[in-house]
């Protein structure tokens, strides 16, 4: 009986306190700026240097590109296998043009593991949604002469 009263006391003591839980997913937490969610990818900034794929500890990035008639590199395919990505941020750290960044998107529940192999089209659509949500975080493409950087 004494235990019951003590437990009731603890419960009643919590009632006036501020709630720390949220009604997720209807209410989303405020994620910190440095939250590591799935990647943002901005193809116009990518110079196909392959550094992100080379540094990736789990080999989950595969990409390909080609040169145009002016010898400038253009990305053609960019795939990330989120089944094995550990969201370590190394690819973001190493990217010289900020073509790959981290977002606050993390809801990737799918029915098949194969659906976690996401391609450039998915990443671009995800980036569009991100920029709609955070217009002030859209890349300033005019500030970087990407084509010049890709010249080699
Ligand atoms: S976050 Fe880490 S594991 Fe994921 S793609 Fe980038 S380097 Fe690879
Ligand atoms: S490191 Fe950046 S610029 Fe280089 S291939 Fe990866 S995303 Fe593109």
Automatic annotation (TrEMBL):
It holds the Pfam family Fer4_7. It is found in: Cell membrane. Its main location: membrane. Its EC number is 7.1.1.-. Its cofactor is [4Fe-4S] cluster. [4Fe-4S] cluster 2 binds at residues 56, 85, 88, 91. GO terms for molecular function: 4 iron, 4 sulfur cluster binding; iron ion binding; NADH dehydrogenase (quinone) (non-electrogenic) activity; quinone binding. [4Fe-4S] cluster 1 binds at residues 46, 49, 52, 95. It catalyses: a quinone + NADH + 5 H(+)(in) = a quinol + NAD(+) + 4 H(+)(out). Binds 2 [4Fe-4S] clusters per subunit. GO terms for biological process: aerobic respiration. It comes from the Bacteria. NDH-1 is composed of 14 different subunits. Subunits NuoA, H, J, K, L, M, N constitute the membrane sector of the complex. This is NADH-quinone oxidoreductase subunit I. It comes from Alicyclobacillus tolerans.
